[in-house]
Amino acid sequence: MSSSPTLSLPGGRNAALLQGAGFTAILAALLVVPLTIGNDFVTHIFITMCLMAALSTAWNLVGGFAGQMSLGHGVYYGIGAYAGVILMNMGISPWIGMFAGGLIAMVVGVVISYPCFRLKGPFYSLASIAFLEVFRVLALHFSSLTGGATGLMIPLNLGWTWMVFRERWPSLVIIFGMLLVTLAVAAAVRRSRLGFYLIATRERESAARAAGVQTVRVRLIAVAISSFLCAMLGTFHAMYLTFIEPAAMFSLTFSIQIAMFALIGGLGTVRGPLLGAVLLVPITEWARAVLGASALGLHGFVYGSVLILVVLFMPNGIIGFLSRYAGKQNAEDAAPATTQTDTIKAPAAPLVPPAPDRAGIGADIMRVEHLNKHFGGLHVTRDISFTLREGEILGLIGPNGAGKTTLFNMLSGFLSPDSGSVSLRGPDGKFHTPANPADFAALGMGRTFQIVQPFAAMTVEENIMVGAFYRHHDEKAARESARETAWRMGLGPLLNSEARGLTIGGLKRLEVARVMAMEPRVLLLDEVMAGINQTDVRRAIDLMLSIRDSGVSIIAIEHVMQAVMSLSDRVIVLASGEVIAEGDPRDVVRDPHVIEAYLGKEFADAQA
Ligand SMILES: Nc1ncnc2c1ncn2[C@@H]1O[C@H](COP(=O)(O)OP(=O)(O)OP(=O)(O)O)[C@@H](O)[C@H]1O
């Protein structure tokens, strides 16, 4: 599934306002139209629209924001329905029952999702379907509680206390209110640190982990919120239907429908699921009513046809299509500087002039001792030991396949060494040995990746915000910090551009900016100058010097020798997993072993 569009329109303020007004009008119509018409069938369709929109919005927290394509969300809806009805039969109001059902669903959601999050793509979807089936069978089996295959009727106690009414409008008011709450929760999540972390995790899990995101934790929080909301909606629907049975409450078809509204409307967007439901529910409900029994299964046909059309012509759903259209409109109106993503004008002055008063090299901040790593029979790093000092730039060079990236992965917690240790000096002055990327990040470690890992569906600003959230939990503060970092890194004019539109030089700078927004103490840069032009190399060198001068210690894997020579205080040379030379760059490049293993005779002659 292609990634969803960002919520921020690329600079299209008017278009965004227009979209907002349109959305509010649709939302208001969901309540006003049926109340004005006053027809039971029409009201029923609008109740179904609100319910489906709310369920799909809740699903979207997991399926869209977190990118976990659950096809078993009927589990939570069913749990809410049964909890509400069973408690009502015990004399407890569904207003309380819906919270009880929500809490049970939340626990079930977290327990079943924890192991399932290890599964990717279709395997996760299949596991979610399997759990749905398990719950349907359980509901059949525990018939003394659930009524088994015969199902459960609710006692017909009318009134607001019992959420059961003779007329339809009170149910409409309740589900409309629940829809508003669900939308408000989704919007709050999308704007919050959690929302950014979820989308970052969906887009590039490794990069998210490097930014200090505890990826399993954030996805579990999304499941908890989503299952709670779905269960509450399930309780409401049980009261509306007045009868429940396992096949309908734990239904695969129903679960797929919930997901489909979001897919059609716009996966991972706040407004998409509502638009999907508003478009599809009336067509199918109307066809069902008009064609009666001859239209059995027609809704599946309608959904399938619309889905095919959307995938073909609007791969990012209706919202994606509208956003792109708005973006185009805006591009025609706006000044070129705000829309061109590929041409970064070099500023007259250096982006970040190196500070004249370098603090100097301090005490050890990182200690690497006897690192060994095997991949099967391949001994990739052999007994590697070195130290990194405060305010130092350590160049790491070596031929392809020497083990540099593997070493970086061990230095940042992405790989565990077979033996040996990496310890970092914490703010308390003591050395700690972290075990995973989150612990490394907590001690001030930031890293980039050899193959750039942008969060493609986010803007430049949002990408950097993922890093900034590490220090600033509040959205406004994170945004400000991200903007400030972006200008410092020369990305200011591109703040609102989507990351996927950047050149390779821009993407490399974006990676550094995202890490710098975390305010690291140690920075691992993996070939940030590979594939960029001479001007960008010069700017990258200035950037690294200024980062160093701000007190950050850097280890840089680099093949661009011009950069290695002008930046490094010390150089380590790796070949076949071993350190073959270490010391002052000018001495190292004259070392015969280094010339033979990496630099070649031409380089030595050129230096001479
Ligand atoms: N996950 C893995 N499983 C098996 N072998 C691996 C794995 N990762 C790396 N290797 C192998 O380990 C060796 C070192 O790879 P690594 O990527 O660390 O080298 P490098 O010095 O970073 O090379 P380059 O400059 O090309 O990026 C290579 O032979 C590579 O094929």
Please state the structural category. Answer: alpha/beta
- What would you say the CATH architecture of the largest domain is? Orthogonal Bundle
What sort of overall outline do the alpha carbons produce when their principal axes are compared? Answer: elongated
Mean pLDDT: 87
How many domains is the backbone divided into?
A: 2
| Ligand list | adenosine-5'-triphosphate
Specify Rg, calculated over alpha carbons: 28 Å
Which stretches are poorly predicted, pLDDT < 50 over at least 5 residues? 1-11, 331-356
What does the largest sheet look like? Answer: 6 strands, mixed
Strand content: 5-15%
CATH topology of the largest domain: ABC transporter involved in vitamin B12 uptake, BtuC
The CATH class of the largest domain is Mainly Alpha
Instruction: Name the helicity range.
Output: 55-70%
Q: Tell me the strand order in the biggest sheet.
A: 8-9-10-5-11-12
Number of strands: 12
Distance between the termini: 55 Å
Number of separate helices: 24
Subcellular location: Cell membrane
InterPro entries: AAA+_ATPase, ABC_AA/LPS_Transport, ABC_transp_permease, ABC_transporter-like_ATP-bd, BCA_ABC_TP_C, LivM-like, P-loop_NTPase
Protein name: Branched-chain amino acid ABC transporter ATP-binding protein/permease
Domain ABC transporter: 366-601
